[in-house]
Design brief:
Helices cover about 15% and strands about 25% of the residues. With about 100 residues, the protein is α/β, with parallel strands linked by helices. Strands 1-2-4-3 form a 4-stranded mixed beta sheet, with helices on one face. α1 links the parallel β1 and β2. The longest helix has 13 residues.
Length: about 100
């Protein structure tokens, strides 16, 4: 839990078992289910899952850092900004931007 009431889930994976998308979603969903019985669903705490991978998640779209959110396929409108998946492809550091390198 960060000071701004955001839950961060960090996961490191060296070997590609071809299940990362399902695995990371599973971790993210478990953390997102943080509303207690009787509480308002608007009190849901934002959750970010960050995966540090030593393989290319999507070889056809090489990136050092990528961020995924739920959104409308046609309009690209974000469905909910409290549910985020981030991936750092460590073997693609050559693609890191200046902004990436600051962090």
């Amino acid at each position: 839990m960060l000071n701004d009431n955001t839950i961060i889930n960090l996961e490191m994976q060296v070997t590609n078992y071809s299940n990362w998308t399902n695995r990371s979603l599973s971790y993210l969903c478990r953390a997102f289910d943080n509303v207690q019985k009787g509480e308002d669903y608007n009190s849901t705490i934002p959750v970010t899952h960050i995966g540090f991978l030593d393989f290319d998640l999507f070889p056809e779209e090489l990136e050092f850092y990528s961020k995924y959110m739920l959104q409308n396929v046609k309009s690209r409108k974000i469905y909910n900004d409290k549910f985020t998946l981030c991936v750092l492809s460590l073997n693609q550091i050559k693609l890191a931007t200046k902004e990436d390198k600051k962090w």
